[in-house]
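ingest -> fold -> write
write: protein_1
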Amino acid sequence: IESHMGQSHSSPDPLWEKAVHIAETNFHWIPGTIVDKEVVLNEAGQTEETSEKYIELYMSKSEGIQMRLIRALFNGKDVTRDEKENNENISLLKQEGPENPFLAGRQNNITYTKIPDTVWVEKTPCCLFSYRQTEDGITWQGKAWLNYHNGIPVKIKYHTTDTINEDNLTLNNLSGTILFSHSDPGKWVPKKISYSMDIKTKVFPFYTF
């Protein structure tokens, strides 16, 4: 097992370095359509609410990346009209933080360990890396599966045991999994993102999900 620390390490792993280069050269890609599905569970594990959003992304010459809500469902009911009047709830997916441990500018915040055994993921021979990343005082632990031959990231999983405070919410046990797709001539993009967390509100009523 080989251990490395960010870009400052005297001999960074060449496969990880390839993944960093791939992420940098593909940073400009955006999805044409995002399907965002959320399920909120209570403490007993029962479904409290479900929501789905279908969002189209497009490029404007004058204003850059723009979003257009196509359809929205809440507990199976069509709420598209209401959501179009409340566009601040639509968040643009950004390749930052734990969702992308390969950002070149953040390599000094990451330590990783390479496990040389070959693992097959998505019908691809991969090398497994275990990594630790610190961002804004939050420590993330994760695993990354890189194509054994060319370093293309195939899958990552990450989690944190730290508490995250965001507006009127407290987030705990946040974890996520991302599967990537790659096609010639070198386009590398997220294919499927799933995540889970425990949420507690800081305003009355004090719900815990």
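write: protein_2
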Amino acid sequence: VWQTATIFDDIYDSKEKVVPSGYWAYGALIGLMALLATIPFGFLPWILTVMAVCLAVEYPRLRRRHYLLSGVTIGLSSSMAFLFGTLVPITSEASSQPIALVAFAMFAIFSGGSLLKDIVNIEEDKRLGIPTIFTRFEKNRAVQIVSTFVALGFVIPAMFLRTSVDLALFLGAGIGAWLVIVVLKDRCYKAILILYFLEGVWVFSRL
């Protein structure tokens, strides 16, 4: 599915008026393979894959229509991928994990991360006419909005992991992420990725 999104994004970005038919066919074939590969897993996983393939094909257009749609689409796709994993039949007891809350946390985190990544390509996005939150608002204003959104994403896991240690760590991570983005601005992305990784390891080790 991700490969399908990449192919159609390349096609949409192409400055050539005529795109080679083989490339279109390759993208369509990869999407079809994803749909066929999920049939054995059951109806609900297959439906999630259908939705993901549709988002992959439409992603290049969606991310150019509104500055929030890129992050929302990536966040939604990430949640769907997680839900797909929870629906795949396995030979173990039913999970007692808070699946819906974990999916919501993944949506918020990946959406925030996707919005933040645009901070490194502001001038290029302006030149290409791609709407992002950093081309829509003045940079300092955009940084304040994105840093708050990302910080909230770090705190959301406290909705299902509620010990005092968890709460302190998530709150500290949220505050730390906010400060990193506000202070480092366009040099913050790698540091935030490290924080995402550390929090992800902690969350999934606790579930």
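write: annotation protein_2
The mean pLDDT is 84.
Residues 199 and 205 are 10 Å apart (CA to CA).
pipeline exit 0
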